[in-house]
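User: My instructor asked us to take a sequence, write out its structure as tokens, and then describe one feature of it. I'm not sure where to start. Here is the sequence I was given:
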Amino acid sequence: MSSYADRPNILIIITHDLGTRLSCYGESSVQTPALDSLAASGVRFANHFCTAPYCSPSRGAIFTGKYPHTNGLMGLTNLNWDLPDANATLARILGSDGYETFLLGFQHEVRGNERLNTYFQHVSERALPHDCDTVADLATSFLTERGSSGHHTPFYARVGTTEVHRPYDGYEPDDPTTVDVPPYMKDTPGAREDLAHFHGAIRRTDRSVGRILEALERSGLAENTIVVFTTDHGIAFPRAKATLYDPGIRTALLLRWPTRVPTNHRVDDMITNIDLLPSLLDAAGIALPPDLQGRSFLPLLVNQPYTPHTQVFAELNTVPGDVKRCVRTARYKLIRNYDEGALLQLPTDIESSPTRRDMGDDHLAPRPVLELYDLELDPWEVDSLAGLPRMRQVEMDLTERLDRWLYETDDPILRDPITRPDGEAEILQKLWRIYGGQFRNPAYDRFIAQ
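Assistant: Let's start with the prediction itself. The structure tokens for your sequence are:
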């Protein structure tokens, strides 16, 4: 066991709703020089997947190393869900093993600020806004003080921003004619307007990350600090956020650890976001709790034996009406829909967007029980192959894999429908009424009727 002074510091920067919308991920119309530089100085995971395409469940999975249906945080904290206190989180584990732990800015797993001090030893002022500029100020001040103080205790600092969550008001937009419209979206004036403002939020976030990384360099701590940049799920546009299609569950993950992991390195292996916690504990020399569902990818980065994932899993627990599970292999994906309803149930923030205004109502077609996609031939998951005789063997194999995962993880969907916490229904109905506006459609009426 190394001494505390030899252990790496850990700095995690996590944003909202970003997916992989960065130029280092091939999004050519988005300029993100700070994050591109971070990718060039470390590792970029090209196939990193979240376990849930909503904020709180995905973050809960990241910081417990367990699936949402296992750790208990299956919905949004602002809809009365909460992370059960029995969970061992990254902050708690590191804090109990010699690390000094800090929460700087936004978090989305715990309801009630008074509980945060049971997870982190130091928590930034909750009354402050958590926009990227304010949070960058907090982080740069922290790193400057830490570098000049002579502290030898390793630190874990989680830095969270509200960007790039909607709304995109107050950001300088790009020229709508220059944006790349993702292939899974309709290219409409509304989509281009929406993406142009979204890019403004991304650019400001990138500048803030750049400020934090510059402060880390000036502090003299960079050489012994693992820097992680990630996000919770896909972008807040149709067929991404709140879906189990790849644009909803594929997320950015960048990691830098000077002298220990390669630079300008791309990892193509499938990684799931419950793998981050065991990987960081592994890097810190801390024994892994036996009940983790993720596993360390550190061996993959340091040329040690590593067995790649042959599949990853994700879940959606939007109640009422949109509960799903999926299994994804390198080539195929199977999605099981547990509820009848529209093919896409759009979140409130997307429902009120310019993109929604112009996209039509094709997404209100009935959803099937099963969706099966050949990701090699159909990367945007447009044509479901479920039920086709030629796909029978693939469908049976993926069904068996999915069922085995449900039973091994004791998914409550095996016993009863997913239930919502007290008060969630009233909050949801209020939000849908507020955001419905001019774009209200039959899906709203069915939803509110429930």
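For the description part of your assignment, you could build on this observation: The chain has 14 helices and 14 strands. Try explaining in your own words what that tells you about the chain.
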